[in-house]
UniProtKB/TrEMBL annotation:
It is a multi-pass membrane protein. This is Inositolphosphotransferase Aur1/Ipt1 domain-containing protein. Gene3D superfamilies: Phosphatidic acid phosphatase type 2/haloperoxidase. Residues 158-326 form the Inositolphosphotransferase Aur1/Ipt1 domain. It comes from Diplocarpon rosae.
Length: 422
């Protein structure tokens, strides 16, 4: 009979990338040809890891396809000023402020609406994941927004800088950092889903901005009450960021917002949607990432309100847009995760980058064992019995894929077969 058993040999301790070993410490190891050869192999391995069995043109085509909606969003935003004002809809300068007070003020009506929104958030997360403890988190945003809003009324220099770091700096790099992290540690293919979700939510946001233009809180601060009617010739405003310009001794934000191609686009807040989209993806695969991105979402919400760029309802709208698009692609994420846990799609970026080294499974604790067939003489019937190694590996990888965050809180984002009838 034949069984599969682990090899007794263990991988070398030397760092190895696709046949590239670190040079030994002999006198001949640090000659220029040796160093050049080692560096050449190193960068070739990085290049092959990035390609991941694609050709260069194939990878470029793949990236452009995944970025379709992102490019549409950027192009539309940059050229929004070209749309003739005569065919653009009326600007709503009062509606958001009135709706914000109706929903979030501590009144019987406001509390009732907040409770309804919490129930809807809980129901959405439970329907998506079937995890009650995780669904509780989705019930908190209306109350969290109120708490954060209460902290925005005191202005000071340190808070100006604190808000600027999130709103004016991290906001622009967060999607790239999230995509890179997902490429490194999430299932292969998740970055593509992230790009589609990110692009679609932003396209939906800018469609809303163009079809229902709304004024931000700075509009009342700048033009006074009662609010004058808005028109498309009005320049944008940096609002609270002018204080940051004063600290930095520049006019960067004042000039940038004054020349904004889309002035009346308060609802939904794409700043809020950016952070929520990053959170939903990172939190699915990392406990620490969930904590960090959860803090970033709250930080971004506080900053947008503190700097007078968005109402609470705008941030809630950004969350809803992001959650809705994430839900559309949730089944696709399950299929991608299943392909990864069963070994069909290969390793993620980190595993490919450090293939054959002890760092390969540093984060997901995969066993570094291979299996060979050995004959068993105590069965003479010539039968072959094969251990269910694939099933064992699949079970182990599914367990490791579940983030410790979800295991601890009891809200597991369980990877299930979409065809499973259970």
């Amino acid at each position: 009979m034949i069984l599969l058993q682990p090899h007794s040999s263990s991988p070398s301790w030397l760092v190895c990338w696709d046949g590239l070993h670190l040079p030994s410490f002999g006198t001949d190891s640090f000659t220029m040809p040796a160093i050049a050869n080692a560096m050449g192999r190193f960068f070739l391995h990085i290049y092959k890891t990035l390609l991941n069995r694609h050709s260069f043109l194939g990878l470029l085509r793949h990236i452009l396809i995944n970025m379709t909606f992102i490019l549409i969003w950027i192009t539309t935003f940059k050229n929004a000023w070209r749309i003739d004002a005569s065919i653009r809809p009326q600007i709503h300068v009062k509606d958001l402020e009135e709706a914000d007070h109706t929903i979030f003020d501590i009144t019987l009506t406001g509390l009732s609406i907040q409770c309804i929104l919490s129930v809807l958030g809980y129901s959405w997360m439970y329907a998506l994941t079937r995890r009650s403890k995780l669904a509780i988190l989705a019930a908190l945003p209306p109350f969290a927004l109120n708490i954060l809003h209460a902290a925005t009324h005191t202005l000071c220099g340190p808070l100006d800088v604190f808000a600027w770091l999130s709103y004016g700096v991290i906001h622009f790099v967060s999607p790239f950092l999230a995509a890179f992290w997902l490429w490194l540690f999430a299932s292969p293919g998740v970055v593509s889903i992230f790009a589609w979700c990110f692009g679609i939510q932003n396209c939906l946001g800018i469609i809303t901005h163009l079809s229902m233009p709304t004024a931000a809180p700075w509009y009342g601060d700048q033009y006074g009450y009662p609010l004058p009617p808005g028109n498309y010739s009005m320049p944008g405003s940096a609002a609270g960021l002018v204080r940051v310009d004063a600290v930095l001794g520049t006019h960067i934000y004042a000039n940038a917002f004054k020349a904004s191609p889309l002035v009346f686009g308060a609802f939904p807040s794409l700043h809020g949607a950016f952070s929520c989209c990053c959170f939903l993806f990172i939190a699915r695969y990392s406990r620490r990432g969930a904590y960090m991105l959860g803090f970033y979402v709250l930080w971004q919400w506080f900053s947008t309100m503190y700097l007078r760029h968005h109402w609470r309802i705008d941030l809630l709208g950004g969350l809803i847009y992001s959650a809705a698009v994430f839900s559309m692609f949730y089944r696709s994420l399950q299929r991608i995760d299943k392909a990864y846990t069963t070994g069909v799609s290969g390793g993620n970026g980190w595993q490919r980058l450090f293939h054959g080294t002890r760092l390969q499974f540093c984060f997901d604790r995969q066993p570094e064992t291979s299996y060979e067939a050995v004959s068993l003489d105590d069965h003479g019937d010539g039968e072959y019995v094969r251990m269910s190694v694939d099933q064992a590996l699949r079970t182990h990888r599914e367990e490791d894929l579940e983030s410790a965050w979800v295991e601890d809180m009891g809200g597991t984002w369980k990877t299930r077969d979409p065809t499973d009838s259970r």
